[in-house]
Amino acid sequence: MYLKHFNLNEFPFVLTPNTQYFCNLPSFQEALNVILLSLRTGEGFIKIIGEVGTGKTMLCRELLNKIENEYTIAYIPNPPTTSSDLHKALAQEFGITIDKTKDHYDLLKIIHEKLLETAKTDKKAVIIVDEAQVISEKGLEGLRLLSNLETESKKLLHIILFGQPELDKKLAKKSLRQLKQRITFSYRLRTLNKHELPAYVYHRLSKAGNKYTDIFSRHAIQLLTQASQGTPRLVNILCHKALMTTYGKGRSYVGGKEMFTAILDTESVPWHFKCLPINLNLLFILIAILILGIELFLISTRV
Questions:
Q1: Using one digit for the tens of pLDDT, what is the confidence trace for 109-141?
Q2: Which CATH number goes with the domain that contains 246?
Q3: Same-domain pairing of 150 and 202
Q4: Residue 25, CB half-sphere, CA atoms under 13 Å: how many?
Q5: Domain containing 82: what range?
Q6: Looking at residues 265-283, what average pLDDT do you find?
Q7: Quick one: 116 and 149 in the same domain?
Q8: Number of domains, the chain
Q9: β-bridge mates for residue 73, sequence order
Q10: What is the model's pLDDT at position 278?
Q11: For 160-180, what is each residue's pLDDT tens digit?
Q12: In what order do the strands lie in the sheet with 183-188?
């Protein structure tokens, strides 16, 4: 592949969330600050919303790295939809051996006892749920009931929900209004802007071993910004394909043509971005010719 060709140690644009490549851009840092502040002030529910591909799972993994020594964590990356299965998954994450003869009420009691033991060690218990939008209404209500567990002075449990915008739609339902009121802090991840996107690309290249910053031309970055709309996952896909195309041509510099080839080859890029001209200067020339032709036509009609 292209690693040796571009003097890279590893592929910089893989889709697997690897915190080594975490880019501390404003949106991600602001989200982390919201979560860490909420945990330190002892709040119950925290919600992080982001569109598909905006880096929720990467942020989730970075958070785990930052708090793993300070908190007792139950991390649910692919949550069950039902309340009972969700509680079983949480029990397993907290190291509780599940007795199949116990009913749901007994399981909740055991979880409560575990949380009381954790509180005695001066450690806070945190549930982190990724892809929370898939949880059923009853499952979300079950999380709310868990959040009621507290002593006279403090809560025994903090819950962080990472989800797509569909989670907000679900929480807007009247049946979940009690849970919505419990969410004290929330944050919505945004896509990368035109200044952040090049920084993101070169950060990943640097982490992969690149010592140069000019692998992608300015035109390639412009096309990438428009076609990806700043979505990190789509940026990764397009950059990887553009590097492969450039390597196939034996070039060491990703130009507009190579990036446009990657755009045409990617289904998730909206169709109207695939109509982008490879050379914007050519577009301006065509417009100028069209205007000149109209002017000549108007002159001829006057004569």
A1: 888 888 888 888 878 889 999 999 999 998 898
A2: 1.10.8
A3: no
A4: 26
A5: 26-188
A6: 69
A7: yes
A8: 2
A9: 126
A10: 47
A11: 999 999 999 999 999 999 999
A12: 71-76, 124-129, 157-163, 45-49, 183-188
